[in-house]
Design goal:
The complex is a heterodimer of chains A (113) and B (107). Chain A is an all-beta fold and 113 residues long. Chain A contains no helices and 11 strands. In chain A, 0% of the residues lie in helices and 51% in strands. The termini of chain A are far apart. In chain B, the strands form 2 sheets. In chain B, strands 2, 4, 5, 9, 10 and 11 form a 6-stranded mixed β-sheet that branches. In chain B, strands 1-3-8-7-6 form a 5-stranded antiparallel β-sheet, with no helix packed on it. The N and C termini of chain B lie far apart (38 Å). Chain B is built from no helices and 11 strands. Classes of the chains: A mainly beta (113), B mainly beta (107). At the A-B interface, β4, β5 and β10 of A face β4, β5, β9 and β10 of B.
Chain lengths: 113, 107
């Protein structure tokens, strides 16, 4: 099956903890993304990587750090979570700058208590 | 200002009625796309439509670049069409999303 796979689906943690989310795509795309969907359902870009190189970093707090070992993987680490980090984090991939083959994963829901 | 504006915010239809969703976008965006999201679900691409009109079954998308607008028309709505429809514009390795239209189709 070719798709974008995210783990975990759901994670609950306390303020100040570190969390890591994994994302893998088996579509052969060369660009991967992390988006954040807040409680009002607004989706915003966080990071874009093309062939393991950071292309877009949309003024994300420094406690967020993306990690790409190869073009099929893009993980996201949050060093010390804060309550406002509670959201759904969506990973996506596409070829090039993004076109008709934009594909999203099922998301990781983070709850910070 | 907001780069992608969607309307309406929400829409309630009876099964069989038609829906027209609108999206206006700024000049910095192109390659408009429409996505569908069920509650708690992932985003599914509905249309990639940088310009012109595209149709797939009961769904039709029209993008008029000169007027910076794109629309999604759903004909003969079904209960399974319920969910959130998001439009997005592409630029430089990212999509900018509108706030979405929540569509509810009732029996």
């Amino acid at each position: 099956e070719t798709a974008v796979f995210q783990t975990p689906n759901y994670h609950v943690t306390q303020v100040g903890n570190e969390v890591s989310f994994n994302c893998k795509q088996t579509l052969g795309h060369d660009t991967m993304y992390w988006y954040k969907q807040d409680s009002k359902k607004l989706l915003k870009i966080m990071f874009s990587y093309n062939n393991k190189q950071l292309i877009v970093n949309e003024t994300v707090p420094r406690r967020f750090s993306p990690q790409s070992s190869d073009k099929a993987h893009l993980n996201l680490r949050i060093k010390s979570v804060e309550p406002e980090d509670s959201a759904v984090y969506l990973c996506a991939s596409s070829s090039g700058k993004g076109g008709s083959d934009y594909t999203f994963g099922s998301g990781t829901r983070l709850l910070v208590i | 200002g907001q780069q992608v504006q969607q309307s309406p915010t929400s829409l309630v239809l009876q099964e069989g009625e038609n829906a027209e969703l609108q999206c206006n976008f700024s000049t910095s965006l192109n390659s408009m796309q429409w996505f569908y999201q069920r509650p708690g679900g992932s985003l599914i691409s509905v249309f990639y439509n940088p310009s012109g009109t595209k149709q797939s079954g009961r769904l039709t998308s029209t993008t008029v670049i000169k007027e910076r607008r794109s629309s999604l028309h759903i004909s003969s709505s079904q209960i399974t069409d319920s969910g959130t429809y998001l439009c997005a514009g592409g630029s430089n390795y990212k999509l900018t999303f509108g706030k979405g239209t929540l569509l509810t189709v009732t029996p």
